[in-house]
UniProtKB/TrEMBL annotation:
It comes from the Bacteria. PANTHER family: BIFUNCTIONAL OLIGORIBONUCLEASE AND PAP PHOSPHATASE NRNA (PTHR47618). This is Phosphoesterase RecJ-like protein. Gene3D superfamilies: 3.10.310.30, inorganic pyrophosphatase (n-terminal core). Residues 16-168 form the DDH domain.
Length: 336
């Protein structure tokens, strides 16, 4: 593993650098990636952000978004950049399977691999790791990496602050999750002092829905919400046909599971969605209920205790029935 002094030495001269993050990137993935990008380009590095897939339109306003390369759109260029990189920063993921086909390119690269992440059980592919499962967001760790690890807080500017505030805001549930400690609030305040327009960022992320997205949300809540009071659990499941009917785009399903969790008395919520290749599950829970344990044990996934995801090779109905059957194992915890 690299030491921080060795990493500082590497970053002291211009390098070819790739920054990548998990597939279907969210606000934290893009905020942390573009925040780090805005820092590194100030140092004279040649930097490219490569995402494995597309990401929500309501994140396209982020500073330097126009410089992002999407692997599925430009696989050859992406592969060449990874092969030519001296350093690859891996943000907001801890196993190379989270970046799909890009993962094997990163694994094969001779570049130094730097992980900045807050998920459980990291894979051992990195040469330097800035990792803390108690951090509320990867963006918080990027802030800590620049300010406290590299001792380069003087390079923080409005673009960096805007991106990192976006990542922290989205992954902390607008600063309302338990992970939003007083230290996180202080970081947020500093980012605002640096120029992050917190009111505008919130508006661009959360008050920026298409008509299709709102109508799809209404359909999910009116017609697809299933409440299992005997388990204090709520389920929303949608088919491929429903996605087509409402012309659902990347990002349109984000956050829907939280509406199910907001029902009075619900401790566990599942959003189960039929995709072209697999059935995907997104779980949210309250208190100490281990949503990540269910995803890891039964659905080839994982995540945080209260926010996790997984997938199934079964059809939608069988996946939903399997999920329901699992609830009996956790009934005592769910009814506490």
């Amino acid at each position: 593993m690299l030491s921080i002094s060795e990493l500082k030495s590497l970053l002291a001269t211009p390098q070819k650098i790739v920054i990548t993050t998990h597939h279907k990137p969210d606000g934290d993935a893009m905020g942390s990636s573009l925040g780090l990008y805005a820092y590194l380009i100030q140092l004279g590095h040649h930097v490219k952000v490569i995402t494995p897939t597309d990401y929500p339109y309501f994140l396209h306003w982020l500073p330097n978004n126009s410089d992002v390369i999407i692997y599925t759109d430009q696989p050859d260029q992406s592969a060449a950049l990874v092969a030519d990189a001296a350093i690859i920063f891996c943000l907001d993921f801890n196993t190379l399977s989270r970046i799909n086909e890009l993962g094997e390119l990163v694994r094969a690269s001779d570049a130094y691999k730097i992980m900045i992440d807050h998920h459980l059980e990291p894979e051992d592919f990195d040469d330097y790791r800035h990792w803390n499962i108690n951090a509320c967001a990867a963006a918080q760790l990027v802030y800590d990496f620049i300010v406290n690890e590299l001792k380069d807080g003087a390079m923080m500017n409005k673009d960096i602050a805007t991106c990192l505030y976006t990542g922290i805001m989205t992954d902390s549930g607008s600063f309302r999750f338990p992970s939003a400690t007083s230290a996180v609030y202080r970081i947020g305040a500093e980012l605002i002092d640096l120029g992050a327009e917190h009111w505008k960022i919130h508006q661009l992320v959360y008050d920026n829905a298409t008509e299709n997205r709102l109508r799809f949300l209404g359909h999910c809540l009116s017609n697809k919400l299933e409440i299992l009071r005997e388990f204090n659990t709520a389920i929303i499941s949608v088919t491929k046909e429903e996605l087509r009917e409402y012309n659902v785009a990347t990002g349109d399903t984000e956050g829907i599971v939280n509406y199910a969790l907001s029902v009075n008395g619900i401790r566990l919520a599942a959003f189960i969605i039929e995709r072209t290749d697999k059935v995907k599950l997104s779980l949210r829970s309250t208190g100490d209920f281990p949503a990540n344990e269910i995803c890891k044990k039964y659905f080839n996934g994982g995540g945080h205790r209260n926010a996790a995801g997984g997938a199934s090779d079964k059809n939608l109905e069988d996946t939903r029935n399997e999920f329901k059957s699992i609830l009996t194992e956790y009934k005592t915890q769910l009814l506490q």
